[in-house]
Design goal:
3-stranded mixed sheet; L-arginine/glycine Amidinotransferase, Chain A
């Protein structure tokens, strides 16, 4: 059960964030409203929200998931690949130090972003992507094993992060973009396939009793509900323009 979510309110510089989506510039006022709705939905699921102030120096800083990986035992500071995001980690570390005595970090030449890390129970799956390299995954593995966890890594192509294409819904169910990864990586799980036309919805997010599904993807929502999950729809149209999804906007524990 999740109890706490760390979020960072978008700054006005959000409109200058990194993007490969070619969907145009986000509407800042609309993004603020959507961020408020996102927090409200988290609260409805029983989470306490710790909101960090906007950081105008870093346009992408609202996507806090990329800066760290957190568990009840420890926090691991990431090392994002884009140079424009590196100092975001220093900012988030100041907050995480208030809540964790154990604070580890990924160091150069390792690269790792939280969007490439998917936790299932005591095991982490790490995607080797344009944002996370093999050295980052190696350091991450060495860190988590000190605290009783395990990890494995896999190469991904044509997507920003691992969790852009696959997410754990709990109860041995994975939501996965069709043909994203060979299923032998996840033989022990039930797979809910997301069609190419609804690929963005592969980044749906299980929060306690509900699965958050992005607005506008009815086929995926129906598939999730068919397996017995309750859903909540969240509109993230402005964050989608910056390649951001449901998991990107919070750190949860």
């Amino acid at each position: 059960m999740f109890e706490i979510a760390f979020v960072r309110k978008p700054g006005k510089s959000l409109v200058n964030g990194i993007s490969e989506s070619n969907q145009g510039q986000p509407d800042y006022e609309k993004a603020l409203k959507q961020h408020e709705e996102y927090k409200t939905t988290l609260r409805k699921c029983g989470l306490k929200i710790i909101e960090l102030e906007p950081d105008e120096q870093f346009p992408d800083s609202t996507f806090v998931e990329d800066t760290a990986v957190i568990t009840r035992d420890m926090a691991i500071l990431a090392n994002p690949a884009p140079s424009s995001r590196k100092d975001e980690v220093l900012r988030i570390s100041q907050e995480l130090k208030k809540h964790w005595n154990i604070l580890e970090s990924i160091k150069e030449p390792g690269k790792l972003e939280g969007g490439d890390v998917m936790q299932i129970d005591m095991h982490f799956y790490v995607g080797i992507s344009e944002r996370t390299n093999e050295e980052g995954a190696r350091q991450f593995d060495a860190i988590v094993r000190k605290y009783g966890y395990t990890s494995s890594s896999m190469k991904i192509n044509n997507l920003l992060h691992l969790k852009t294409g696959v997410n754990y819904l709990g109860d041995k169910y994975l939501l996965m973009k069709n043909n994203f990864l060979k299923e032998e990586h996840f033989e022990r799980f039930n797979i809910i396939n997301v069609s190419e036309k609804e690929a963005y919805a592969a980044n749906s997010l299980r929060i306690n009793e509900y699965v958050f599904v992005p607005d506008g993807y009815p086929e995926t929502k129906e598939k999730i509900e068919k397996e017995g999950f309750k859903t909540m729809v969240v509109n993230l149209s402005e964050f989608k323009k910056l390649d951001g999804g449901l998991s990107c906007l919070s750190l949860r524990v």
